[in-house]
Amino acid sequence: MSSTDSQTNTSKEDNKESSPKPAAEKPAPPKPAAEKPAPPKPEEALPAFEKELTDRIVNQFADDVEVGYVKENRTRINVKKEKILDVAKFIKDQTPFDHAESVSGVDFPEDKEIEVVYHLGSYTDNRYSKQILALSTRAPREEIPNPGNDSTKLPSLRDVFYSVEFHERECFEMFGVYFDGHPDNRRLLLPEDWADIPPLRKDFRNKGR
Amino acid sequence: MSVIAPKFRLAYFLKAIIDNVFWIIILVALIGIPAIQIGLFYGDLPVIEGELLTAFLAFTWLFNPAMALPLVKSLIYSDLFRIAAFPGFGFAALIAAGTIFVERKMLAKLQLRVGPFYCGKIEGILQLAGDGLKLISKEIIIPAKADKPIFWVAPVLFVATAAAFVSLIPVAPGGWVVADLDVGLLAVFAVIGFFPIITVLSAWSANSKYPFIGGIRALHQMVSFEIPLILSLLGVVILTGTLNLSEIVESQSNFPWIIFMPIGAIVFFTAMLAELERIPFDLPEAESEIVAGWLTEFSGMMYGLVQLGSYVKLYAFAALFVVIFLGGWTGPVFWPPLDEQVITTGLEIPSYTGDPFLTISTPGLPLFDADPNEWILQKQGELQYTTGQLLISGVIWFVLKTVAVIFFILLPRGVFPRIRIDMLLHIGWYKLIGLSFVNIFIALGLLYTGILGPGGIL
Amino acid sequence: MTEQIPTDHTEQLPPGLQLEKVDDRIMTLNVGPQHPGSGHMRIIVKIDGDYIVDADPDPGYVHRGEEKMAEVRNYLLNIPHLERPVIHDSCNILYPYVLGVEDIVGIEVPERAKYVRVIAAELNRCVYIQYWLAIYGIFLGHSTMFMWPAGDRELMIDLLEKMTGARVTHSYFIPGGVRNDIPANFEDVCLRQVNYFEKRIKEYADIFYDNPILKARTEDTGVLSSQDAIRLGTTGSVLRASGIDYDVRVKEPYDVYEELDVHTNVLKDGDSYARSKIPWLDMFESCNIIRQALEKMPKSGSVRTKLRPNPKGVGNNEVYKRVESGRGAAGMHIISNGKPEPYRVKISPGSFRNLIALPYLLKGEKLGNMPAVYWSLNYWPVEADR
What pairing do the DSSP bridges indicate for beta strands A153-155 and A178-180? Predict the structure, then answer.
């Protein structure tokens, strides 16, 4: 995709946004789910098993990680993007999580960030088979995206969790997040001649909406 | 509703038919009749037995069995009739058409469906004709970079080779075969050898990947299964001492060879399935792997011709199985010889006073006449052609046996999945060839112990 | 067995361009998207003789942007279009979404509705597996196995039609229960048809699963070891055929599955034959579950908690819900920001997760095994594309 194409497209989008009609539709900046959990809930209410799991990770990487939430069967760890590979390796080696169920990209235009959430699960350990660990990290977001050649980059977890391969390819084409170290950074679902911005970003608008 | 599919209106339909009829009548009246008149004016009418052959006289003779019989006989004794109609291509194509219909209905019943149902009102009996019309009316698309002459000629060659195969099959006693060769079985092998060549030529000339893979598969399959096919028939040749197919049939007047050589029959049947590319050996046309194999680029009537050829080939193989293992046309005769008067003048049955009171006659069906000496002449080998009840009985037995064999060729399609090419070649080269050698040793044992064969006990 | 042709990428090319290395021995086949053995996808297969040296799946021909569409419709309007990715299993693909929305808007489901949902989901699983099995049969050239499941599938479709009013696209599950109650005397009809259905699918063993040619063809082809099954993150029947005992219905029971006796079918072999047999065994299990659920279901009561017309999510909230669909675990990641529309819906279906095993399994296989291996992955192209 050439930069001129995306330039024209984004300018078009800007025009649209300046007009009053679609402006109302623009989503409010969602607060990152990170800030939610701890204050409202008392410590004892947290499920013990999941709390113990997150504590292990927090103890290992003191400041680089923060606990997103701890709910029954679901936990979430927010990691800085520099540390994501280390945390993933730790999780792979020290905890029974062995595969990725899903890799969701979430676009946050107000924060100028794109979040990538890896949902990790475990097949091998029976106690962990209910658990889903959401490992999230954030990459900077470009107003004029140029997938692969801009700063929207993250280290790939493909060498740690092989199962993220196609999920990361999908995330690359849908959000423009380039995964460094991914051996096969090609488009998966979109056509070869797609010359627009990555379609799941919030500033890509469906026709007629 | 929409413009693309206008509503059917009976009035328009009738108008179209009446239009056609009107124009045919007009053209015949304005061009055909004057042409005949002018022709009659210049040409001489033939004089037969002192009578001028008018149209009235011609029709009179045509509907008089006594007069028409020699004409019809001379027609059916001609080579053209044998090549085009009865033991040759027409007969085979008719059975092939029946095969397609039976295949579709039988498979449908097996799979809890109804199959062709509407076309032709009675169980979809005209479905095949409709399919043929559709194929004829379709556009023939040729790949841009195909080798056009070879690509064009391949379907025709396929049908021609199948027809050549058919021409070697004896259908009824007394020389009802297009080409009665002394080396009939060798000629059969030679004709079978043409099929892989045509397949590979057409596949290669299409200049496309899937036909290419299909053609290579067909080549592997046919070549590797020709060897057990030929070897499995050698046992019969050893015991009969002849390669003439008619003589092989006559050698089975007491018992069919399948009683003594079931192994050979099984090997031949399996190799036959592979040669015919029937499921479970339909690898050259495996649609989920290589679209339609070597048929991928054929369209319209070219595809139709290949299908026709393959079903004619199916009939020919089934008939070869019948001829060699199941005794061909041999079987009990249905009814005693009829008197010739029944067809010509009518058989008069006298009462006890001597006056005829009942006359039995069946005009039409000129083939029903019979020579009372046919049996004897047939035994002495002096009769060139059999007609009459011997012919009818022979053909009925032959067709019955062939249809039974065709049924068993069709049946695996509903029961088995497709096998893989390496398994197929393994079956061909290891198992079938070994079994066919076992069959040859059995035949040699029967020959040298003096049980069968020339001068044997049985 | 097969020699892997080494491909060296010595030349550095600008990104986005690929130089295809031409080798006289290697032929590139485009299997799909217009191919009787591919479905709505393309597999770029490189073959050396009869052996596949490289396979590159190229999905996306039926990509409809369901996730994008979900961001501009409210929670209820999302229901009809989110089941479109796999209409033959529409109840199961909608299940995680409905569970997630119930969590987000905070709504309780009546007990009877949970049982009705389980019955509908299991019926729909049978419908899907029958369709899948039919195509597996025709991929192997077994036309009877195409017709029989396609015909027997009507039994379950009729039941679902009685329940939901639609034959295929049910839109039956809604947050708070199901759309309408099941008709009177449905239990008797359902029990009768399920029993007959079970009798019918037992016959598949005779014509298909015990067929010697089928066994010879699919056994020991495309073997996925249990370590690889975990590493590749496969799910559903592919995982269970490789010897991993994992079923979301058992491991993380949703709705009333923990009150029912669910047995997980596991085979050790990990080959195409085992992968094709697991869904068939699952159908028997579904019949068992339906019978249990019919027995334990409350005979009367509400099937639906009324929802506000335009329900909003409770604050910033995110859920990840998963269920066992016909193709494995189907997960939905729903993020809400307090608006009537979800901020983001990510569908992670079983097909997409199993697709990663395809190039891994096809390398070194024979070309004739391609349909058997490909379709045994329980892959539904439309669902993977979303």
Answer: parallel
